[in-house]
Amino acid sequence: MPENAALPQPLHDALLQLLGPAGLLTATSDIDPFCIDWRALYHGKCAAVLRPANTEECAKAVALCNQHNVPMVPQGGNTSMVGGATPDDTGKAVVISTTRMTRIHDIDHADLTMTVEAGVTLKAAQDAAAKEGLLLPLSISSEGSADIGGILATNAGGNNTVRYGNARELALGLEAVMPDGNVLNLMRKLRKDNTGYALRQLLVGSEGTLGIITQAIIQLQPAPRSRETALCAVADAKSALDLFAAFRKQDPSAIQAFEFMSGTSMALVNKLIEGAPLPLSEPAPAYALVELGSPRGDDSLRSLMEDVLGTALEDGLVTDAVLAESEAQRQSLWMIREEHAEAQKRAGASVKNDVSVPLAAIPTFIDEATKACEALIPGIRVAPFGHIGDGNIHFNLVQPEGADPKAFLAQDHAMMDTVAAIVRKLGGSFSAEHGVGQLKTYMMPEWRGGAELETMRRIKNALDPKNLMNPGKIFPAA
Q: Where would I find the FAD-binding PCMH-type domain in this sequence (predicted)?
């Protein structure tokens, strides 16, 4: 693998003067952690890591890199599942990290908004909102390290999408540094602003290929004053979906989250994660985690939960259930759900299929994809889980016990293509919330080819004619 390429001396000196020693990292030991993705699938190289402290420094650093034709890889918390924030192995690029941009500028109770810099972690933003009696509704398993800029750049979804929408729905205003160093200021707290193209929506989900998000205005909600959470044992995905329909029929506005977990995936959590035993009497083929929430303190959510689950138990739709009796118990139930990705990582190599299909097609998808993957690789552990309430299933495939991880991962495209063929037949998407990154670029021509992909290319070429901003992501090699 090539060694890191040195920055041109004039660029190095200008960046050092601009960013200082804390903002310009060039030692191999300092920059290596920025060149490996969370899943350890991609091991890149870079010439330096730039850590601007504010938008002005970021803009000037980008302008300098553009002048010297140096590729730039924006990076936030480095939690991408698809290698979206990892440089390639040429060593020519710089990583531009937003981790020093951590100021929360404003929480507006009238507008229910929060103004934050890109490097604020989602957990820090959630905690700041909670101190003000408000809720930042986006919730993902990596919220302790994922930051606001990266979350918006990838249009993250998460557990509460069924009620509040993806990151795109929560971004009211944005500021971004464009590939030439110009600052695009879209920081407006307006619900109605019909003045041309919605440029902020172009940046959200662009995976850092069009610019670097540096600040955002995020919409908040009143904090729930009452909340009920239950873990339910069910026979399969169809039963989970029927249970979701039962809650939605009673009161769709009360549903805060509705998560699905397969028996295989749950068993890995119970076995490999300390402090995460199954809180039910015996294992089940599948599980649903239900959370209801309301800003009204006297809301009858417990009655609603008990009524729906009581009927579901009588009808055999649910075979067992446990209701959280305290905040600690609620957090324990959610911890079990949030540790599925980590448990699968500990179980060995895994191939992650972040897909979405129409809700009615979920049972068919899981059944057909499971059979197809088991036929493809005998002994494979099919471990789906995810946001069944909005049609997003993480159809993850864990290596057979005792198998060679490298040999298993060498078949990743065969597994991904097998799953994707079923997803496509059912009218779904091969990427629901994780993005394309560099892992799934090869899928773009077949799925988004023709006028759609060509339009994306034209936008990219117009804003980044040198292809310096996060090259190799989203678009397949020409």
A: 42-223
- Domain with 316, as residue range(s), is 226-340
Tokens of 240: 């989970």
- Terminal alpha carbon distance of the chain: 23
Four-residue CA torsion sign, 116, 119, 123, 128: negative
CATH number, domain of 380, equals 3.30.70.2740
Which residue, 329, 311, 292, 313, is CA-closest to 232? 313
* Residue 151 to residue 123: CA distance in whole angstroms: 12
DSSP secondary structure code for residue 410 in this structure: T
**Radius of gyration of the chain, Cα coordinates, nearest whole angstrom:** 23
Backbone angles phi, psi at 445, to 5 degrees: -60, -40
Place of tokens 């980590």: 342
Whole-angstrom distance, CA of residue 127 vs CA of residue 117: 15
Final residue in a domain of this structure, among 180, 200, 222: 222
Residues 295, 224: contact at Cβ < 8 Å?
A: yes
434-477: per-residue pLDDT in tens?
A: 999 999 999 999 999 899 999 999 999 999 999 999 999 999 98
Total tally of structural domains belonging to the chain: 3
Angstrom distance (rounded) from CA 410 to CA 72: 29
Q: 229, 324 in Cβ contact below 8 A?
A: yes
CA-CA distance, 299 to 321, in Å (whole number)? 22
Whether residue 315 is found in the same domain as residue 354: no
Tell me which H or E stretch contains 19: helix 9-19
Residue 1 has pLDDT above 50, yes or no: no
